[in-house]
Input
Amino acid sequence: MSLRKTITVLLVLLLAGMVMVPMVSATTVSEETKENYFLALGLEKPEKVQGPPLTSYQASKEKIDKILNTGKIQYDKENIIGLIEYNGYEILLLDQNDSVLEIISDGTTTTQQVIKPVHLGEKEFKTDSVFEPTSIGTTTGAKKGAEISRIDIQLPEKSGKYSVKSVQAITVWREDWWDYLGELNLLHTQGRFYVDIGITVSSVIDQSYAQTAGPCDRCTFTHSASGAGTMEGQVTTSAIWATIWTPTIKMSQDAWVSCDLNGYADGDGNGDKWGAIGLGCLAVP
Output
């Protein structure tokens, strides 16, 4: 075969390979790389249930605000789980940390009851990064875990009785730490995701925090929640610490956790360390 024919054949094969690269949907890739926490906790994976959907605060803001005003209830919107409309009633759910407040409105009056979540299970998982030695005589590490509870919501029927709709409360967390001279500077990233299985993540409650220990100052700490009312929610965090004596060492840590409408969860973190000129958080860079 001549050189010209050989080059032509190679070009054809290259183009064919480019064309034949399979196209995979983003959702499929996402769930294949995640872990279903129902299965990870040894629980039966719940199926999508027919019935009235749970909508987010963003989707039902006007109706939710009206219920809160009618009942003269002051509440942080970040702790609003969502709204269900059923049989002419509006059922508002509010997170109370270890319980859920259910408010049933008929348009003019409201009634309230406290729902105790049904604890289904919890587990701590291993990570790939635990106590990794660093070049500056400190260590870093991480761990993660999850907890799942079921919220059984009372739905008023026209007969005067009640039926039940269940929503899942999936708490996903991870901890990343910087161990400096035996003292842990900790970034705890945690989200409680209220999931109407197969329909939506109605609410994402940010429960993150950072801790400082030993001869260190915390220079920054930011955290936020996103994705309420969508197919997937996420909580992100970021922190920077610095030693309070020279030579100054700074350490940054970023992390995130997520959960989707089918109970698939994920999370990761990364950090960096560097020497700085100056003292504590004022040192540069």
Observations:
- The helical segments are 3-19, 26-32, 37-40, 61-70.
